[in-house]
Sequence to fold (109 residues):
Amino acid sequence: MASYLVQVSYTPEAIGALIKKPQDRAAIVAKMVRKLGGRMVGFWMAFGDYDVVGVIEAPDNVSAAAFALAVAGGGSCKAVKTTPLLTLREGAAALRKAKGSGYVPIGAK
Fold:
């Protein structure tokens, strides 16, 4: 399964609701990820640009996109950023492929 970093910023209304009634959203998110065929690796509260950070595994990009779309469409989040993650081995393979790709930068001679 592929891994994805998910970063979420709540709306001010959602933060207000959580302050009034704190809740652990991890179980809700994990259930959703399982329903899409994946698993939640970790889920953390954060502060700064994002309020929640998680790592999920999904069987494919379509499932990961469905996760992101469902969260974004729920109305409690003002930003949802999903980043596909590569293992170090996959990253090294991508670097080798890039080296042999034949790409010519703009203005190169």
In short: Strands lie at 2-10, 39-45, 52-58, 77-85. The chain has a mean pLDDT of 95. The first strand starts at residue 2 and ends at 10. Residues 2-99 form a domain with the Alpha-Beta Plaits fold (CATH 3.30.70.920).
